[in-house]
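Subject: two folds for Thursday's group meeting

Dear M.,

Sorry for the delay on this. The cluster queue was jammed most of the week, so I only got both jobs back this morning. I'm pasting them in the order they finished. Each block is the input sequence followed by the predicted structure tokens. Could you check whether the formatting survives your parser before we put anything on slides? The first protein is the one we discussed after the seminar.
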Amino acid sequence: MAKRVFFSFHYQDVIDFRANVVRQHWVTKNDREEAGYFDASLWESSKRAGDESLKRLINEGLDGTTVTAVLIGSLTYSRRWVRYEIFKSLGRGNRLFGVHINSIPGKDQQTKALGPNPFEYLGVRFAQDGTSVELSEWNGAQWVAYSDLQGWSFSEAKVQSVWGQFYQLTKWYPVYDWDANDGFNNFATWVG
């Protein structure tokens, strides 16, 4: 069954056409079931009336989704709202994965070196009793508290082995390359 996928990306990668190749590859498939997804991401690139409006827009875009695909270009890792979308997806329980898109020729027909993995720049710290998690981001020099979203509590404590531990999100979330890992034929599998 096709799943509703939220695509998180830097808008420059839409302008350069790379993000569109991934988001719209379903049009060359026989049907949505073969493609494995419906695109539930946001097209809007303009900043709304402020941070809270943008957060609401993202939250609404995530409603009804079960998967978040982070399309990784050159600067995706550093984008404030991509980080918010990743953490919000994590809190919702969405399946998360990344897709390097710089191997896709842009509108200039050129490829680029792979961009940094955003999951390496985000992390979580479990409380000493495993009942909650705090969110962190790498600011280029150290790990700092993530300010756009609070951590959350769990209804039951997590397994004791994670109590008090810090994990970068790379520990849990895979990253693929659209070209090298044949995204056109494997995306539905990545979606799960």
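Second protein, same layout:
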Amino acid sequence: MSERARLRVNLAQSEFEVEGSEAFVRTYAERFDALLDRLGRGTRPNDPPAASSPPTRTQPASPPVLSLDGASLGELLHHLPRSATDVDRMLLAGHIAQSRSADNAFSTGEANTLLTEQGVKIGNPSQSVKQNVVARRVFRHQRRYRVSQIGLDHLAQLLRPVLSA
């Protein structure tokens, strides 16, 4: 059986994360190094690739955090597209609750409380979290939930105009 490996990325600190067998992770290591080099220099992905350094392996760590640069939940809810659903709103609130918690996880109640404080009422908060679990945007962690990389990517796509500004 092959050994599990992880390649981690956090854009706030110029890091990416891929987890799988060593061979699988190795296929992405060089591409990520080149992308990180371009991000560090502030170039665009279509620019010529930089010379990549040998890939480095990192120890398992907490999941990457979507950098929202201190934006409040109210601001982010305001910038969600009209097509955003209650499931998307719950995912965003879950991410905010997770980033504020000591154990880097959130509960349905915590996320729903944040939304309620902003005047947003979700019809069925538990069902919204379950739909995020089914979509693999959220996963269970010690009787609580964590936003997955798929969830972070989904939020980044929804908030692209805000994050790129």
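Two things I noticed about the second structure. The chain has seven helices and four strands. The first strand starts at residue 4 and ends at 7.

Cheers,
T.
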